[in-house]
Amino acid sequence: MPNIETLSPEEFKTELEQADTTLIDLRTSWEQTSFWIISEDQIHIDITLANTTEKLEALDLKGKYLIYCWHGKRSLQVLKYMESQGFEYVKDLEGGIDKWKF
After folding, report:
1. Contact by Cβ (8 Å): 8, 96
2. Is the CB of residue 38 less than 8 Å from the CB of residue 63?
3. Residue 65 bridge partners (DSSP)
4. pLDDT of residue 28
5. Fewer beta carbons within 10 Å, N or C terminal of the chain?
6. Considering only CA atoms, which of 54, 47, 48 is closest in space to residue 78?
7. Which residue, 19, 11, 13, is CA-closest to 64?
8. Per-residue confidence (pLDDT) for residue 41, from 0 to 100
């Protein structure tokens, strides 16, 4: 059964500390200039670019992914897309990085 859901910032931070988890920043390059969540294993996919679907399809369906954007709306769309594509483990930061207070 897939493990796909949204998490509070506290829950997200706990998940981020676990091994074998890839963090996906879905913000635009401009949005990334402010601040970001630091993780050893992370990728940036600018959701406003045409190649977003290709980049997501290149990911391992069995991988563990934590996703976020600025306010949580775009990452929620990506969460639903990844679920429809058969990803097994995707968790979204509820409210986006705007709610990150660590």
Report:
1. no
2. no
3. 22, 90
4. 86
5. N
6. 47
7. 19
8. 82
Q: How confident is the model at residue 36 (pLDDT cuts 50, 70, 90)?
A: low
Q: What is the mean pLDDT of residues 27-43?
A: 78
63-77 pLDDT, tens digit each: 999 999 999 999 999
Q: Token match 């988890």: residue? A: 21
Tokens of 81: 């897309």
pTM as predicted: 0.90
* Overall number of domains in the chain: 1
Of 45, 15, 13, the C-alpha closest to 31 is 45
The residue behind tokens 């990911």 is: 59
In this structure, what token pair is assigned to residue 65?
């992914």
Residues sharing a CB contact under 8 Å with residue 31, sequence separation 6 or more, in sequence order: 69, 70
- The CATH number linked to 22 is 3.40.250.10
Q: What is the mean pLDDT of residues 8-25?
A: 91
**Which residue range forms the structural domain that includes residue 35?**
3-99
- Our separate counts of H helices and E strands in the chain read 3, 5
